[in-house]
Amino acid sequence: MKKYDENKSNRSKKSKHRLFKPRKKRNSEEDSAIQYLQGQYEQIVPENIDTFKDFPLSQKTLKGLKDNNYVKPTDIQRQAIGYALKGNDILGAAKTGSGKTLAFLIPILEQLFCKKWTRLDGVGALVISPTRELAYQIYEILRKIGQYHDFSAGLIIGGQNLKFEKKRMDQINILICTPGRLLQHMDENPLFDCSSLQILVLDEADRCLDMGFETTMNAIIENLPPKRQTLLFSATQTKSVKDLARLSLSFPTYIAPHEQTETVTPDSLQQSYIVCKVDEKVGILWSFIKNHLKQKVLVFMATCKQVKFMYELCCKLRPGVSLLALYGTLHQEKRERIYQEFCRKSNVVLFATDLASRGLDFPKINWVIQYDCPENVETYIHRAGRTARGFLGKGDGLLMLLPNEEIFVDDLRKSKIPINKISVDPSKVISPQRKIEALLSDNIELKQTAQRAFVSYLKSVFLMKNKDLFNVQLLDTDAYAKSLGLIIPPRIRFLQKLQVKNMFMNKLKEKDNVVEKLNSKFNAKTESDEFISEDEQVSNIPKMKTKKEQKTDANFNFHNFDDSEEEDFLHVKEKNVQLELIPLEIPKENKKKAKPVTKAAVAKKILKKKIKVNTTTKFTDDGEIIEDEKRDVKSELAKQFLSEDVGGLDIERAKEVLQEEDKFDKLRFREKVKAKHKEQKRKLKHKRMEEEGEKDDFGSQSESDGPDLSWLPDPNKVYDTGDHSDQHESDSEIIENRQKVINTDSEERYHRPTKRKLVVNRGISQDSVKPRKIKKVEDISAALTVDEAEALAMQLLYNKK
Ligand SMILES: Nc1ncnc2c1ncn2[C@@H]1O[C@H](COP(=O)(O)OP(=O)(O)OP(=O)(O)O)[C@@H](O)[C@H]1O
Q1: Ligand 1 in reach of 385 Cβ (< 6 A)
Q2: CA geometry: angle at 172 spanning 168 and 177, to 5°?
């Protein structure tokens, strides 16, 4: 309250600058009104309350209620408001749709009014709701009935602009929030301060305090001032002492106006159930929708994926009514839009998860269908309670159960829920299976959605706590897949794993039985063995097996277990009981004692073995190590640095080393670039040559044909006189040489290659381009004897003539 006083003084300082005289008068009026109201609190008798005016409420609140047509309080309002005004902690339980929201909003307004709460006083009341939609709904009702008050109210829920919320947190008096976002502000927002909190309200308290929100709620409660008023409301109120202790309630008043009534659900709610096979569900729901086109229907399903699929499928099948879907994985804006659309429309079907099961007050719902069996009775009550709300509300509920789920009806009846079995007229059920199959074959996305829906449903059944009620093994998965239009049932990995695990457990059990048998047999045997001579006993002891043999025996028997093997198994065991039992019966204590291998231990081991971690060694085909240049250090400085075995890291030194290494890296890089350029050039050249080759193919003769020398004059015609027989040399060598000389000579005359001139022009030394053939002539002349040379000269002269 200290802060409150400080703020009051601040306020008076500020007000000096304004015209404040008339306000002073009003203040005194207000004070006396507050005093009067507070004096009346002790005299409230719930039974005497007929209208809201009978409560000692402020004019502002009464006006707000009247404007919204709230004249007569409901049972829970009549009983709870009085105690709440007195400042008692309250545990309120009343049927769904019985007006619990006003039962806590009116006391909040009144308490803050009586304490003259202002913006500067910070958070005075905190309302926590399990879902965003419910928080939004409470916020809207508060805005309506509190319109004449000067308090500021804030809606703090996930999916909204956190920055925007953060800036305004210090100006909010009444905070409506979801647990997650509230904790986020508590942790991250320095402007958030709830040290002067007066009232804490948990709507759907049992849900807020259950396992799902446990840690978040514990953290929130820790941050709240212990001196406060706490109000808990729900249709299925928690009575758990543990929960109440968590909230440190001080002598809470338990208010349950409907506890003595015959039913826990609204009287105007007509409830029925049907039993059908899992593969009939889609057909029945589709037929129901087709037969209730002029109604407002809410269909609850177990998972988001089912909702998504059913919504998309029905949209494609076009039943002739508006369709909506509401589930947690949708974007917040979309969720809000759908919520409002469903509130507004009258002929509409909404597919939803349990997100919409608690607290939401959709107006005038005709039917609530529970397509999948609810987790427990509480969930059933909240789902069904979305219809038949308020004073005049009426509605119907339909629960669809599988044959094995029919036992759930007993639980419902035990919990005072009147429900009747009805049967479906098969002639009225139109199964859209063929259409669905056709749609799925055309639309791969829809098919994938169907597959996900299929798996998610099985998973949800598998994860349910109540195994008597939910048994995934009893589901005809193939038929169910077909009903969703999936001709080939999707793989259900978690089920396959489960089956393997079950098999494993069964075999273990069988083994345990065998071991027990063996133990008893062994005991019996040892007793009888006492009468056998020592020698005989020795001969009966089998040869000791090595550990490895024991292990393989055990494994073998384990994996290939059948009756015949059991015989062998028993036989062997009888002889060597001690050995065979070891691998089978691993004492649990021993298992526990096994030290977990820590990362540090692994690192130590590696260090001991001197293994260089994070290194890769590459080998050639011949087994030689390929050196990785990138990893090896090159500079002397780096080598020295690595060889030093000093703990820690000298950053300056490491920098120097890196700089040194950098030089080598640059060199390596340059070399690489050069090699790359070279390769590019080579490729370019190769390409050019190929292109030239291609040109030849099209332009002239191909290379393989050789150059066309047909235009050259025939050397024989040029040099020959005609009679070759006379000129035949006896010596073959001379003929050969002579021929060469003739060729050279003719080449010189007719084919002086221009290329050589070009080469000379480029400045290449003359020696390197010396015509080889001239050299050959020199060689030849050198190799000839004097006589031969003379003969050759004569011949040449003769030819010239
Ligand atoms: N005094 C009243 N007079 C007329 N209508 C009322 C009054 N109180 C509540 N209602 C109407 O009754 C409906 C249900 O109220 P509310 O949502 O508070 O119920 P609830 O008990 O919180 O339900 P649930 O358990 O499902 O959360 C609302 O439409 C609300 O406007």
Answers
A1: yes
A2: 95
Q: Are residues 226 and 102 in the same domain?
A: yes
Residue 99 near ligand 1, beta carbon < 6 Å: yes
Report how many domains make up the chain.
Answer: 5
Structure tokens at 492: 């259900």
**235 CA from centroid of ligand 1 (Å):** 12
Ramachandran angles phi, psi of 625, nearest 5°: -75, 130
Residues 131 and 326 sit within 8 Å (Cβ to Cβ) = no
Which residues 6+ apart lie within 8 Å of 244 measured at CB?
91, 238, 252
Residues 389, 256 share a domain: no
Ligand 1 centroid distance, CA of 389 (Å): 7
For ligand 1, atom 22, the nearest C-alpha belongs to: 100
- Residue closest by Cα to atom 13 of ligand 1: 390
For ligand 1, whether the C-beta of 391 sits within 6 Å is yes
Distance 778 CA to ligand 1 centre (A): 126
| Ligand 1 in reach of 235 Cβ (< 6 A) | yes
What is the per-residue pLDDT for 537? 37
Nearest CA to ligand 1 atom 23: 97
Atom 15 of ligand 1, nearest CA residue:
99
Residues 231 and 150 in one domain: yes
The response to whether residue 266 sits with its C-beta less than 6 Å from ligand 1 reads no
Ligand 1 midpoint to CA 101 (Å): 6
Q: pLDDT averaged over consecutive 10-residue blocks of the chain (801 residues)?
A: 40 44 62 91 92 95 96 96 95 95 97 93 95 96 96 90 80 94 91 93 94 91 93 89 80 90 94 96 96 96 97 96 95 93 96 96 96 96 96 94 96 95 90 93 94 95 91 92 93 81 81 72 53 37 39 35 33 36 41 63 80 73 71 76 69 84 88 92 87 48 45 57 43 46 43 44 46 48 66 72 52
Same domain membership, residue 276 and residue 240: no
Q: Say whether pTM exceeds 0.90.
A: no
- Residue 165 near ligand 1, beta carbon < 6 Å: no
In angstroms, the CA 191 to CA 601 distance is 47
Query: According to the model, what pLDDT value does residue 714 have?
Result: 60
**What pLDDT shows up at residue 544?**
39
Tokens standing for residue 188? 């991250």
**In sequence order, what are the residues at sequence separation of 6 or more whose Cβ sits closer than 8 angstroms to the Cβ of residue 460?**
302, 303, 372
State whether 669 and 721 are in the same domain: no
210 and 279 in a single domain? The answer is no
- In angstroms, the CA 462 to CA 468 distance is 11
Pocket test for ligand 1, best of 79, 102, 354, 368 (most atoms within 8 A of CB): 102
> Please, is 411 exposed, middle or buried when counting C-beta atoms within 10 Å of its C-beta (0-12, 13-18, 19+)?
middle
Question: How many CB atoms neighbour CB 86 within 10 A?
Answer: 14
Q: Is 257 close to ligand 1, i.e. is its CB under 6 Å away? A: no
Binding site membership of 140 for ligand 1 (Cβ less than 6 Å): no
**318 assigned to some structural domain:** yes
Domain residue limits at 413: 269-483
Protein residue closest via CA to atom 9 of ligand 1: 99
Q: How far apart are CA 691 and CA 336, in angstroms?
A: 69
How many Å is the Cα radius of gyration of the chain? 49
As for the ipTM of the complex, it is 0.99
In degrees rounded to 5, what are phi and psi of residue 155? Answer: -105, 115
